[in-house]
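Morning, I've got a small favour to ask if you have a moment. I've been staring at a protein lately and its backbone has me curious. You're getting the sequence in one-letter code plus the fold written as C-alpha cells. I've dropped the whole record in just underneath, so have a look:
=====
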Amino acid sequence: MKQPAVFLDRDGTIIKEVDYLDSLEKVELLPGVPEALSALRAGGFKLFVVTNQSGVARGYFTETFVQKTHEFISHILGKQGCEIDGFYFCPHHPTEGKESYRQKCNCRKPEPGMVLRAASEHDLDLRRSWIIGDKKSDIMTAKSVGIKAVLVLTGYGRETEAELVKAGIKVPVCEDIQAAAKVILKESQLIA
C-alpha cells in the first residue's frame, strides 16, 4: 500500500533561515523539529525535504556542499531519533547564475518536479500527502500537485502569510513545525 508523505521545505522550516547557507556551522535546527518529525513518522508519513538552492546557480556554493549539508542535517536528526527518507534540491535559477544552472526547470518550486520525482521513486500516495513551508512557492507547489499545505510562521512565514491573504489563498497557518504536525495529524485523522 502506498504511503503518504510530508514534504518539508528546508531553510526557514526545519533549519534556521540564514539566506544562502554556505557553511555547516550555520546549520541550526529550529525548535521542535525532531518532535514534529517523530510525530509525523509515528502517524504513518514518510518525510522528504524539497528545497530550492539557487545559491548553486549563483556560485555561492556547490551541489556537493548542498549534499554535505543534507548529510549533516540527517546526522543531527539521526542523533535525536529522526530520519528523513530523502532530500531533493533544485540548483537552478531561471534568470541568474552560471549558464548550465541558469534555466527554467520543472524542479524549482513552485514547479512540481521534486515532489513528483519523490512520489515516483518512493511509491507515495500524493492524495494523502502534505507540504510544510514558509514561502508562497511551497504553498503553490502543493497546489500544482493537488496536495494540502501548511504555512509555518518561521523563516519568511510572516511575510508570506500577508502575501497569501492579499492573493486570497487559504491554507492552515501555524506558529511552527510542531503546530503544523498537529494540524496534519488531526486533519489526516491519524494519532501520533
